[in-house]
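Here comes my example:
=====
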Amino acid sequence: MATVSESADVKVGGDDMQVFTFRPDGGGKSPAVIVIQEIFGVNDHIKDVAARFAAEGYVAAAPDLFHRSGRGVVVPFDQMQEGMGHRGKLTNDDIVADVSATVAYLKANPNVDADNIGIVGFCFGGMVAYLAAAKVSGLSGAAVFYGGGILPRPDAGADAPRLLDATADAVAVPIISFWGDQDGG
């Protein structure tokens, strides 16, 4: 299926957050999916994931959650600590605001079936997808791929904070989650 891509600036507080959007070429409303980046930013891989969703008939939006660090921050795969530095500038409230703004952007898009907006995320983005399922209205479901930060790492100790414990009762949409049984990362 042919697709169309565009980017838009979405206001979050007083800042502009760039959102990369991919959609099927043609008329009609489509379900939407918010594609959340890994710790590396909205890189070519994340844009490709969004484009593949569009090729399957979805409007896919990839918001730049690192916009507070500057426009278009992309971190090389071998520089995870740099990505963690950008992550460290975000609070969970910032993340909720960014995803909420993306949902509002999609709901206003004439190509989107506003009642069918999901979210998918990978690693850091998986945690974002889980948090959004608990804290952001307007979503229909969430897919979490190896979501870091939902549960503490096995070596973190018994007193490590658990996002799951703090938010599980607030989850209002179906979630599907994937973790590698032998993933040491």
